[in-house]
Amino acid sequence: MAGTDEVAVAGEAGGAGESPGSGEPRRPSDDDIGSGARAGWRRHLPAVALVVLLLGSVTVALATSQSKSPSFERQALAIEHDIRCPSCEALSVATSSAPTAVTLRRVILARLRSGQSAREIEDYVVSRYGEGILLRPPSTGLAGLVWWLPALAALAALAALAVFFWRRRGVDVARPSDDDRELVRRARKERLGSAP
Predict the structure, then answer these.
(1) Phi, psi (rounded to 5 degrees) for 101
(2) Which of 151, 105, 153 is nearest to 125 (CA)?
(3) Alpha-carbon distance 187 to 175, whole Å?
(4) Which fold has domain 72-136?
(5) Within a 10 A sphere around the Cβ of 87, how many other Cβ atoms?
(6) pLDDT tens track for 61-110
(7) How many CB atoms lie within 10 A of CB 108?
(8) What separation in angstroms does the CA of 171 have from each of 69, 158, 174, 175?
(9) What are the CA-CA distances from residue 27 to residues 3, 6, 21, 33, 49 (Å)?
């Protein structure tokens, strides 16, 4: 607030808005111009911070609550993506427009609303159409090899590489003998001596 006191003192000394003793209008300094606006803004800073904090927490709370309890439609869509259309070649129930797919979508949604879980609905569909109706193969039994075989093959390959490098480490590399060094020295000498 020192800037406003200076203005008042300057106004008293030379008249309203005049520099002291000169008779000319006084130009306001940078301190005079922004001091009132900055002080007012700083006064409201805690309130602004509180509002931003509250809005952020409400947004996070809404986003979390929606992701924890998905709507029936989103749950149904997730199930529909895992079930093959009974009358289509390789489409899921979610992407097919065939009448059987539309009917199956209605059945899935109705069963969800009645309180059945996704597993119970999949079991119902499998009981009516067979295991081939699932686009995702089961992870147990003989069909589970589809999931485990690539991982087992990668582990076997890593083990084979480890054994290969471990055995190779044990092989002693032959060192040149003194006779070998002498032979190389003579060959270099002959070659350098015969060079033009």
Answers:
(1) -70, -40
(2) 105
(3) 19
(4) Helicase, Ruva Protein; domain 3 (1.10.8)
(5) 12
(6) 776 655 445 687 888 888 999 999 988 878 899 998 899 999 999 999 99
(7) 26
(8) 62, 21, 9, 12
(9) 13, 12, 14, 10, 36
